[in-house]
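Handout for the seminar on molecular recognition.
Each group receives one record of this type.
Step one: identify the two inputs.
Step two: read the structure output and locate the region that could contact zinc ion.
Step three: write two sentences on what you found, then compare them with the reference statements printed after the record.
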Amino acid sequence: MERPRITRIPLPSSLPMGGVNVFLYRGREALTLFDTGVLTDEAYAALEAGLAAEGVGVRDLERIVLTHHHFDHIGLLRRLAEASGAQTCGHPDTLECLRMTYQFDGAYREYYRALFREMGVPGEEIEMFIRGRERLRQYLDVYSVDRFLADGSVLDGFTVHHVPGHSPTDTLFLHASGDTIVGDHVLATVTPNPILRRPFAGRERVKTLVEYRESLTRTRSLPISWCHPGHGEGFGDASAVVDAILARQDRCCERILALLPAAGMTPYEAMRGLYPAPSPALMFFRLSVAAGHLEWLETLGKVRREQETGGASRYHAVSPEAKETP
Ligand SMILES: [Zn+2]
């Protein structure tokens, strides 16, 4: 099977995780760009240079495809789509997720206040998070998506797989050759974060790590020969990388169980146990790790959750004897 012509163009960003990859794909149907990087002039200039090295320009782009709706992957979408007239494609929930994640309105603030109270986060840290989060505004320039990509559909030689977990819109594009655009679903250099998120209207909040592990298990069975990731260099052995991610999660669960005091603990307390040195900038991501693993342990029946009168969730160890009692 002939491999697709995919070129990685790394774009700069000032994020803790460093640069963001976009990929130029010379498809049969369209000259395609997967993802668009962060909304900065430096990223735009780097993209123009990367395209020029391939003998094309922004104006030649015919299609832009999103791997998920996070701001470091959608930043230049409007600028690129308007400059090229390219068709924009993404997960059917992309626009709703953008609205829920980045529209900094009263409902947004109230949701995060309630969520963080449930996680046991102190009030001043909640307000610090909300103020810090709203600084993301500078990276947002929400644009439309012309074509929604259904799970199992085919786009110019790639089969579309919805793989929610890191985000609800995570989408993987598997070529018949095994070359796969994986976004942030599988990364070799960092463990993708099961980021806490708002539920869709009228729905329960998703247990993101539980959802992510289900997606990883499905991904592990796909015939992937090469991963083109959203961050870092490409890599070959997808199932080994998936196994390494699952193993790191298992070890994190063991650490949390070892930390659990008899009085139980909130996700915030678990976070402080896992990461003793505080970092306001990373609080939300670390809290997502702690909450995600506690929810996975609850799903396994190894901890049980109690809601305190103040609204915080407290997790208690389930002893093996107690589990056997009907
Ligand atoms: Zn992401």
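Reference statements: The longest helix spans residues 238-259. The longest strand covers residues 20-26.
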